[in-house]
Amino acid sequence: MKDDFVFVDELASGTTGMRWDAKYATWDNFTGKPVDGYLANRIVGTRALCEGLERAREKAESMGFGLLLWDGYRPQRAVDCFVRWSKQPEDGRTKARHYPNIGRAEMFEQGYVAVKSGHSRGSTVDLTLYDLASQEILPMGGGHDLMDSLSHHGAQGITQAEARNRRHLRTLMEACGFSAYDREWWHYTLIGEPYPDTYFDFPIAWSGMPTGRHARGEARLLAHPRRG
């Protein structure tokens, strides 16, 4: 594993304000199945990303919120998988939930998916907020990877509470050194990211089930970086 990349859940170990669900390691994503390169349900990022997330976790906690992470580092092979998927015939399995008003190819044309993703540089994260007291995810007016104008910052058609929750997320992330993406309320990139021109391609994997902060050393990233 490249020295500058770590498992974010190691940072979260022992805290109550950060959870994760790596959507592309599961069947719960717009492709409808686990994506190439995601061999474990874990979030990976640069050390700089993790430092920023720790700042965000502390700020969120002061507001009564926790962070739920959906994606961090994304192998280039996963992006390549998205491209291949976009060229396959439409089967309708995930369309209503993730791209109800556009076709697969339009995801790229409209900026929801890129052939070179900032995620592959290791310092971009997809996330939302949950209430620390109830553990309930805050309503945001659309879920992760809803590729629609409803997901844009400042979107019309969401409730005041949903708009307020989006503002909470944006305010705390920007205060902690992240920049927002105008088309996806959940997507934030670390300002001054350490690898702005490098797109990595190592898979996220583990060789054993981690049981603690240091026992997580049993997990290994198989590092084969692709330079871009």
Explain how this protein is built.
- The protein has 228 residues and is α+β, with helices and mostly antiparallel strands.
- Helices cover 25% and strands 15% of the residues.
- The chain has six helices and seven strands; from the N terminus they run βαββαβαααβαββ.
- The chain has a five-stranded mixed sheet, covered by helices on one side.
- A hairpin with a 2-residue loop joins β6 (178-181) and β7 (184-190).
- α2 packs across α6 (160-175).
- It is globular, with a radius of gyration of 17 Å.
- Mean pLDDT is 90; it is low at 207-228.
Oligomer: single chain
Task: Assess the beta-strand content as a share of residues.
Answer: 15-25%
Amino-to-carboxy terminus distance: 18 Å
Uncertain segments are 207-228
Main sheet strand line-up: 2-4-5-7-6
Based on DSSP secondary structure assignment, what is the total number of beta strands? 7
User: What gyration radius follows from the Cα positions, in whole Å?
Assistant: 17 Å
Q: What's the order of the H and E elements?
A: EHEEHEHHHEHEE
Task: Compute the average pLDDT.
Answer: 90
Helix content: 10-25%
Structural category is: alpha+beta
Number of helices: 6
Shape label:
globular
Sheet of most strands: 5 strands, mixed
Q: Could you outline the blueprint of secondary structure elements for this entry?
A:
Blueprint (H helix, E strand, L loop, with lengths): L4 E3 H5 L5 E3 L23 E3 H16 L2 E7 L4 H11 L8 H4 L7 H4 L14 E8 L28 H16 L2 E4 L2 E7 L38
Parallel strand pairs: 2-4
Antiparallel strand pairs: 1-3, 4-5, 5-7, 6-7
Helix pairs in contact: 2-6
